[in-house]
Amino acid sequence: MQEKFTIESAEEERLKELLRTRLSESGWKEEMKAVCRDIIRDRGVENVTIEGLVKEMTPKARELVPDSVKRELLQKIKIHFEES
Known about the structure:
Layout: H1 9-26, H2 28-43, H3 50-64, H4 67-83
Helix pairs in contact: 1-4, 2-3
InterPro entries: TF_ENY2 (IPR018783), TF_EnY2_sf (IPR038212)
Protein name: Transcription and mRNA export factor ENY2
Main location: nucleus
């Protein structure tokens, strides 16, 4: 039987805030805004839906998260579970 790990909501919120901060500091948010603008410009605003935009941007968004941010967040999660 596989053990299910959960993070308390307070810790989850701290991790989300850390992620938001690191992504902003790294310029990721600006990169994503540029990707979004390019998609809308290429297709025309009348041909873009929110759902379609999210679907197209999600793989690129994940790809562009800096490795340092991924490592830091993973380390924080590991520490949390080691201390639990």
